[in-house]
């Protein structure tokens, strides 16, 4: 949009997300106002934003039937601790709901071993073996 792209940084992503949200709202408000006279109820404007896809400054913006933003993401893996070099190993495509591995890449786990799904002591230290008595 406007022949402009943002550089990758946390602040730019936040500002870009705010901009995309504001543009989504203004388009929905304009469309709703053109269909009815006067100020439309907020709920009507909000529902007008659902089930919508458009190109924003943060990329393709898609809101599902519940109004939740579906977004693509990538999992980066540090491949060199000396240079802090990263590579993309997994990519999630939200429109296809598919997670795919980047060819020729592998995840590097700390100690060379994938962590357990549930930590030995549990997420809240609920394993009795880990609880110390007073």
Automatic annotation (TrEMBL):
Gene behind the chain: LOC117554690
One GO term describing the cellular component: plasma membrane
Predominant subcellular localization, coarse grouping: membrane
Annotated ranges, domain Receptor ligand binding region: 7-80
Single GO term (MF): adenylate cyclase activity
Matching Pfam families: ANF_receptor
GO biological process: receptor guanylyl cyclase signaling pathway
Keyword annotations: Glycoprotein, Lyase, Membrane, Nucleotide-binding, Receptor, Signal, Transmembrane, Transmembrane helix
Taxonomic lineage from the root: Eukaryota, Metazoa, Chordata, Craniata, Vertebrata
SUPFAM superfamilies the UniProt entry points to: Periplasmic binding protein-like I
Bilayer topology term: Single-pass type I membrane protein
Protein name: Atrial natriuretic peptide receptor 1-like
Subcellular location: Membrane
Organism this protein belongs to: Gymnodraco acuticeps (Antarctic dragonfish)
